Amino acid sequence: MPVIGDGERRARLGRRQLLAPSVRAARVEDVADAVVGLHATDAATVYLSACARLAEPSAAEVDRALYEDVSLVKLLSMRRTIFAVTEGLAPYVSSAAARAIAAKERATLLKHLRDHAEGWDEARLAEAEREVLAALAGRGEATTKELSEDVPQLRETMLMSAGKAYEARQSVGSRLLRLLASDGHVRRCRPRGSWLSSSYPWALVPQWPEVPVREAKAEVVRRWLAAYGPATVEDVKWWTGWTLGDVRRALADLGALDVALAGGAPALVLPGDEGPVAEPEPWAALLPALDPAVMGWRGRDWYLRPEDVPALFDRAGNAGPTVWWCGEVVGGWTQRADGEVVWRLFRGAGAEAERAVAAEAERLAGWLGEVRVTPRFRTPLEKELRG
């Protein structure tokens, strides 16, 4: 059985995730495909992750793909996380993950409407959806508030946790638009404000071609193994959020090959991918919270020391900003209120690493300009560095 050690895995990470300077991409679509989707739960992550892998980092390049060419679309999909994926991959992600999540979202919303609002049932929910889609067809794009002028039902609310100290009213409109997005009927348009804003209008999207679920799952896993392999079955299951049966079926459909990791642990690669990969030049990267590189595997010891996890992750398991050197996480970083990008290394990495990290910090601060980024999920080291 071929053995793929930690050094080989780090070389693959640097090359295949476009982190070494010599393999950086010109277009954001190439970045999204290389990592099988950019994490988009935090609006800033899409831009920061993409620009870390672009030869010429630019928020305008990400805007082009998201809002002008619409060649990147955001889907609530793997692990119930929002991913920005290319339009070529979107039909597979939709069939493999998003539609099942949308079905659960629909059932949950319908239950909440019946329990916490008045006069709602499945027929009324379907009618409200049709009216929203018709309103968007007429307007072109509109915010939820604007759509509520055409569809008054959107202004209704649900009283959640009534009588509790944390009771709150949820907007029917916000939940219904989220459901339509999960179902692939609408998309988020350019935010009203900066690219960090979460206030955005909605627009209709063309319906993607139907892909059989089993075929779609195999294609998603094929792309993921090409970017992240070798990986364990547990890694694939964690990243996809699927059942163990679905994961094993997809791997069998691909004819995935058995290999061994350092220490002998079993793992899998695509057929023909068991050979060595040329090690890239030394590289440093400042990656954002929830970046695909740090959130790509369940087993992370080969690139992240367990003793560094408490400083870099919040209590829910969300990764904060990380500093990388040649395929390993060696520290964390943040941007302060005055725009300065500061970092801390957990251990001595040498003068070459220090210079490379400083250059990446300067590169990052350069394209950010006057923009100030605060991660949605704050971690202990990030808070400490911000001061």
Automatic annotation (TrEMBL):
Keywords: DNA-binding. The keyword DNA-binding applies. GO terms for molecular function: DNA binding. InterPro entries: AlkZ-like. The keyword DNA-binding applies. This is Winged helix DNA-binding domain-containing protein.
